Amino acid sequence: MSQLLQHRLELLGQSAHRPLLSQGLRGIERETLRVGQDGQLSRRGHPQQLGSTLTHPQITTDYAEALMEFITPAETDIATALEKLDQIHRFVHAELGDEILWSQSMPGVLPDEKDIDIAWYGQSHIGMIKHVYRRGLALRYGKSMQCIAGIHYNYSLSEQLWQLLAQAEHTRGDAMHIQSEHYVALIRNFHRYSWLLMYLFGASPALATGFLRGRAHQLESLSEDTLYLPYATSLRMSDLGYQNNAQDGLVPPYNNLLDYMRSLSMAVRKPYAPYAALGTRRDGEWVQINTNVLQIENEFYATIRPKRVIRTGERPIEALCARGVQYVEVRCMDVNPFDPLGINLETAHFLDAFLLFCALNDSPLTNEAEGEENTANFAATVKEGRRPGLQLQRQGQSIRLQDWGKELLAQIAPVATLLDQQSGGKAHQDSLQQQLARLDNPDLTPSAQVLRAIAAEGNSFPRFALKQSQQLAADFRARPPSAAERAYFSNLAQASIAEQTQMEQQQTGSFDEFIEDYRSRTSSQLCCEN
User: Which part of the chain is the Glutamate--cysteine ligase domain (predicted)?
Assistant: First the structure.
């Protein structure tokens, strides 16, 4: 254990300070495709009874119209967030009719690209720019990529906790700056160690053959309809998922928030010839926001992001510039097909211990060489994580994945103990023991479980995925929402539709003017470029 981690744990372990550990917030965003009973992608629009995808706070869509996204409120207790995610699932299943939700990160058999509908958010300027952004994604990466689902885990610590650390360590600067830089330090450590999450929780070692649309690949054939890699943990997070050559080296390893924002701000303004060849308009309609490396900041596909809740019409980088980092969004987690919600409480407890470890442990400044090493370790784990004797690189030296993983769990253990001392029980420590068992026995990992389940269905990923989706849908429908829950979500839906209608009726100016104003706010006026 580093001296810094020891001192911080001792400080937070004091009875006067330990309650700060329970004052941070957790939230989950779960993506999932709507499909028919046969597993075919839905061609229906977003169900109106679920509300407006533009303004509903908990039920929306992501890239494709059929890719739903469920967003929990931010809670101090992750168990409460999971309970609310369960309520969303039960309400949605009650309203879907004969459709079900796909239980996997990777889609099943997809229709032709022209038959995958892009998410629609109505006629307001805000709704249209969200749709145009997705048109641009379709042009740049293809629509199949817009059918991949994941779990995003939103994590923050109490502002008072950051202030306590700053006071104890005599850190100079205002509170917003100190908090932001602590989160950046967390992110540096996350990049060093996130390969471990892929080994422990990756759940996409196989995919439907047609997903690649004839692209070159190095996967092996498991059956006529299924491709895989025998030791893979998460093909979703490999170069077969979202990839963009234009983004290579886009945001180099960064040591402060200013560097991160500068990189993103430049990328949103940097022309890219292949995208320029596509243009911004076709037949008088916008097809992408701009022809630069990124249309907007969120197009940068990071495994973790510094975040700040944005205001209506505000750009993410504007929010960070103005008000600093509020939380981090972990974006690399696969949907676990064996968990009804895609994630369970045990996984969440480990994430909390892992992220607190990343936040409190010593986080040396990084550089390009370490960034390349981190990227290589992550890539090796998602494609070969369960390979016996797999070697990773740590500061230029080879180390077995299992050995490094056990060292990390030993360092995280006192963090888990502290969290349990505050919350009561042994949930965080028990979760660590479960992960230790997975390091000892790769067959216990979700990716290995998925491959065994696929084998039981004739080596067919689509067949396994459909069977699992049908079973989970039946389980949810066996627990319909209560009258109070149904009323709550119905009221949210109606209010969201009314809000969207009001936005559309009250907006002024043309969409052309709106989008030009939006694009102009990537200029050097941003504080990060001053």
Answer: 10-379
